[in-house]
Amino acid sequence: MTPRPDELFCLGVVAGTHGLRGDLKVRSLSGDFESLLDAEEVFLRRGDEVGCYKAVKVSPHKGNLLLRLAGLDDINAVLPLVGSEVLMRYGDLGPLAEDEFYWSELKGMQVVDQARGELGILEDLFTTAAHDVYVVRGRFGEVLIPAVDEFIVSVDREHNHLRVDLPEGLISENTE
């Protein structure tokens, strides 16, 4: 039985294939593959369609993850899955530390800077080699905020706010 959408967490996206044996190259959306490395079952969503698959091989590869699914053992079988979201049940994810959050909890939060006030809405996230970067869109246009402890003051789930303390120069002064 396929879980309801609110029971699933998106860990990554199928970015391509690897080799001829049906391995999928998965790019992380959260910067963390730990839960997926231990996965026995994953869900792939493309559009409105969600399929459940048994993971038979999961291994790190050049900053991505290689995922092989039961019954899909050649490149032609997995090509239609490229672009799919890779999901797991929340209950199958490992526990988070007190100061960690799932991306789905942060997306849509109002971002407030200590000095400048409201910056906008946290709309996207991307991962670099060093850290995740939050993409905030609002009155200053697009603002890219490194998701590091130095800049993040607090996360208030109850009021849907992410408070930050950004250094001078991170936001263009010409857009104020």
Tell me the fraction of residues in β-strands, as a range.
over 45%
Would you identify the regions where 5 or more consecutive residues have pLDDT less than 50?
A: none
Cross-sheet strand order for the largest sheet? 1-2-5-4-3-6
What name does the CATH topology of the largest domain carry? Elongation Factor Tu (Ef-tu), domain 3
Alpha-carbon Rg, integer = 18 Å
Envelope shape? elongated
Fraction of helical residues: under 10%
Which keywords apply here?
176 residues, mainly beta, Elongation Factor Tu (Ef-tu), domain 3, SH3 type barrels, 2 domains
Report on this model:
This protein is mostly beta strands. It has two domains: 5-92, Elongation Factor Tu (Ef-tu), domain 3 (Beta Barrel); 103-175, PRC-barrel domain (SH3 type barrels). It has helices at 34-37, 75-78, 103-106, and strands at residues 8-18, 23-28, 41-46, 49-61, 64-69, 85-89, 110-113, 117-127, 132-138, 141-146, 152-156, 161-164. The radius of gyration is 18 Å and the shape is elongated. The protein starts with 7 loop residues before the first strand and ends in a 12-residue tail after the last strand. The mean pLDDT is 87.
Describe the secondary-structure layout:
Elements: E1 8-18, E2 23-28, H1 34-37, E3 41-46, E4 49-61, E5 64-69, H2 75-78, E6 85-89, H3 103-106, E7 110-113, E8 117-127, E9 132-138, E10 141-146, E11 152-156, E12 161-164
Parallel strand pairs: 7-12
Antiparallel strand pairs: 1-2, 1-6, 2-5, 3-4, 3-6, 4-5, 7-8, 8-9, 9-10, 11-12
